[in-house]
Amino acid sequence: MAITHATDATFDQEVSQGLVLTDFWATWCGPCKMIAPVLEEIDAEMGDKVKIVKVDVDENQETASKFGIMSIPTLVLMKDGKPVDKVIGYQPKEALQELVNKHL
């Protein structure tokens, strides 16, 4: 499964089914750039278990404010459209896999 980029208009549809790891990020954010390859690895290894959706907070402020995003990267784990977990800041791959596995 490929990583999806959601907008304010498509977000609800993208996260409505199953387990979705949502990455709130911005192009100017250093830790966001560091976590991007980690998310790609998770997508490659766990793609059938979890969908990864990226939301650029500068372009999609409505969705970012709906989730109270104050720091980036913030990763919100959604299950069938509802937030079930959240981590803020860079996370190593193992920590993110553990977060996902906890909700499978």
From TrEMBL:
<dbReference type="GO" id="GO:0045454">
    <property type="term" value="P:cell redox homeostasis"/>
</dbReference>
<feature type="site" description="Contributes to redox potential value">
    <location>
        <position position="31"/>
    </location>
</feature>
<dbReference type="InterPro" id="IPR013766">
    <property type="entry name" value="Thioredoxin_domain"/>
</dbReference>
<keyword id="KW-0676">Redox-active center</keyword>
<dbReference type="GO" id="GO:0005829">
    <property type="term" value="C:cytosol"/>
</dbReference>
<dbReference type="Pfam" id="PF00085">
    <property type="entry name" value="Thioredoxin"/>
</dbReference>
<keyword id="KW-0249">Electron transport</keyword>
<dbReference type="InterPro" id="IPR036249">
    <property type="entry name" value="Thioredoxin-like_sf"/>
</dbReference>
<keyword id="KW-1015">Disulfide bond</keyword>
<keyword id="KW-0813">Transport</keyword>
<feature type="active site" description="Nucleophile">
    <location>
        <position position="32"/>
    </location>
</feature>
<dbReference type="GO" id="GO:0015035">
    <property type="term" value="F:protein-disulfide reductase activity"/>
</dbReference>
<feature type="domain" description="Thioredoxin">
    <location>
        <begin position="1"/>
        <end position="104"/>
    </location>
</feature>
<comment type="similarity">
    <text>Belongs to the thioredoxin family.</text>
</comment>
<dbReference type="InterPro" id="IPR005746">
    <property type="entry name" value="Thioredoxin"/>
</dbReference>
<protein>
    <recommendedName>
        <fullName>Thioredoxin</fullName>
    </recommendedName>
</protein>
<feature type="site" description="Contributes to redox potential value">
    <location>
        <position position="30"/>
    </location>
</feature>
<feature type="disulfide bond" description="Redox-active">
    <location>
        <begin position="29"/>
        <end position="32"/>
    </location>
</feature>
<feature type="active site" description="Nucleophile">
    <location>
        <position position="29"/>
    </location>
</feature>
<feature type="site" description="Deprotonates C-terminal active site Cys">
    <location>
        <position position="23"/>
    </location>
</feature>
<dbReference type="InterPro" id="IPR017937">
    <property type="entry name" value="Thioredoxin_CS"/>
</dbReference>
